[in-house]
Amino acid sequence: MVSLVAVIIWHIPLPIVILGFLIFGALDGIFLSSALTKVPNGAWFTLILAALLSSIFVLWRFGKENQWHAEASDLIAPSSIIFSSGDDGPPKANATASGLRLTAMFDSTPISTIAGLGIFFDKSGLPNTTPTVFVHFLQKFQAAPRIVVFFHIRPLSVPTVPFEERFTITRPVKPAANGQGHQFFRITSRHGYMDEVVSMDLGFQICEQLRSLVIREGATAQYQTQKHVNWPTPNGHAEDDAIEPRKRRDRLEEIDHNAQPGAIGVAPLTAQQERTRQVLSSLESAYKDQVVYIVGKEQMRVCKVTGFKPGGWCRRIALAAFLWLRSNTGSKIANLNVDVDKLVEVGFVKII
Q: pTM of this prediction?
């Protein structure tokens, strides 16, 4: 077992592994030969069990490597899938309300807008790629929710992660300058082995995290445009850098207040505040319309073997056994602790 791990996982050179295997194998062989007399009386069971477990581990690794190779074709950057139809140059992912299209790779089909917030579960979590389920969703329906979230769950080897440190949010696609149109977000949820990640209020938690991000972005952009302005103080002197954090916090509270509907007695909104208000309004409207959880359902098929090829048939049998193990050990979509009426499964087939 250690030799297999050294070759497959640790990538230790094979001659070194063979040398260690011979040394420790000789010692184990001495003890094994002295116990061979017990084989007819029941010791055969442990030998068969060891061989069976080793075979399963090797088979699983072989099957996963073929699966990863087949899935590599779906690792596509968002800018390679969607772009604004108003762009004449290379594809740019800054779509407007009605100008979002697939790239030429996907026949340049216009993308319709679905009202609501769509949460696409991202298995890989790679920062520069698009979730496979979203790629197939676009190909099959030529539509995308108004607010798109790529949601990845990353387990950590700690008991729990504080809630304020749990979520990491980025924008995989540049939003429209006017704050309208589709909004794309990527959320990584880090959790410990005692934390509950997928809960019934997952949609509300994600919406609150997105709202906080939009407000912070608005405050930061507003601060960047005014950071060179000398803000007068009651004593008539300009503010120094020591109170810039307080100024930025006050700006954050101001934008949050101005974004609330029905605010009375507030100053006219700046262009940046208006964009922030527009995004917050779009986010709130999408959340009220519907929250949909989209999960990918990957099915794999073994490629056919033509002619008499002993190696090809052995590979086909091994992969068929791997797929049988995978289908009987994988987690089921029904086990997700979310509202089943909001759960959508998108199926796709990969050839290995």
A: 0.72
* pLDDT at residue 334, as a whole number: 58
26: tokens are 């000789």
User: Hey, what amino acid is at 245?
Assistant: P
Is the separation of the CB atoms in 144 and 180 below 8 Å? no
Per-residue confidence (pLDDT) for residue 197, from 0 to 100: 81
- CB atoms closer than 10 angstroms to residue 246: 10
DSSP string, 127-193: TTS--HHHHHHHHHHSEEEEEEEEEEEEE-SSS---GGGTEEEE-SSPPPTTS-S-EEEEEEEEE-T
Cα separation, 83 vs 183, in Å, equals: 13
List beta partners, residue 351: 301
Q: What is the mean pLDDT of residues 53-65?
A: 93
Mean pLDDT for all residues in the chain: 80
Residue 159: count of CB within 10 angstroms of its CB: 9
